[in-house]
Amino acid sequence: MPVLEGAAYWAAVKTPNTTYEPTYSVNLVVDEATATDFKTRGFTVKPMEEGPAILIKRKVNGPRGMIREAPKLYDRSKNEVDCQVGNGSRVKVQFKEWEVERQGKQYKGLDFMAMQIIDLVQYSGQAGDEFDVEESFEDEL
After folding, report:
1. pTM surpassing 0.90?
2. Residue 25 CB: number of other CB atoms within 10 A?
3. How far is the C-alpha of 44 from the C-alpha of 54, rounded, in Å?
4. Number of H helices, E strands in the chain
5. φ, ψ for residue 2, nearest 5 deg
6. Within 10 Å of residue 49's Cβ, how many Cβ atoms?
7. Closest Cα to residue 93, out of 24, 18, 46, 37?
8. Distance CA 54, CA 31 (A)
């Protein structure tokens, strides 16, 4: 299976994004040549401030009640980990290209198989996460 390296944005690897249909996904920012190749072949390439991003995803719910498992997530040493991947993390993503025809129309996409974290940017999703513990104000008076 192919592997692409790039910067991860809006990664939902171990916990699916449930805004619409539950989906594991990542916007993988890649170089222009790679983006052009994928766009030419009919895959979704999203323009972002950081550069062109290839959308790689896996829907949780499959046909006939099937539930797809989460993509595997590995650290640099190929140990399986369970963490949130922050925007800008340098990663490698393993995927499988798929194509299907339904009612005379072609559909294609990239099935999110696994991700390896090369350089993790800590995810900070909670308000106040960036604050440090401060000494009492009264100590300074």
Report:
1. no
2. 19
3. 6
4. 1, 7
5. -70, 155
6. 6
7. 24
8. 10
Distance separating alpha carbons of residues 43 and 111, to the nearest angstrom: 12
**The pair of three-digit structure tokens given for residue 109, joined into one six-digit string:** 């996409």
83-107: burial string, b at 16+ Cβ within 10 Å, e else: ebbeeebebbbbbeeeeeeeeeeee
**CA 117, chain centre distance (Å):** 11
DSSP bridge pairs for 69: none
Residue 106: pLDDT band with limits 50, 70, 90: confident
Cα separation of 47 and 50, whole Å? Answer: 8
**What pLDDT digit, counting tens, does each position of 92-101 carry?**
999 999 998 8
Return the half-sphere exposure (C-beta side, CA atoms, 13 A cut-off) of residue 80: 6
pLDDT band for position 90 (50/70/90)?
very high
Cβ-contact 94, 115 below 8 angstroms = yes
Q: Which residues pair with 110 in a beta bridge?
A: 97
CA distance 79 to 72: 10
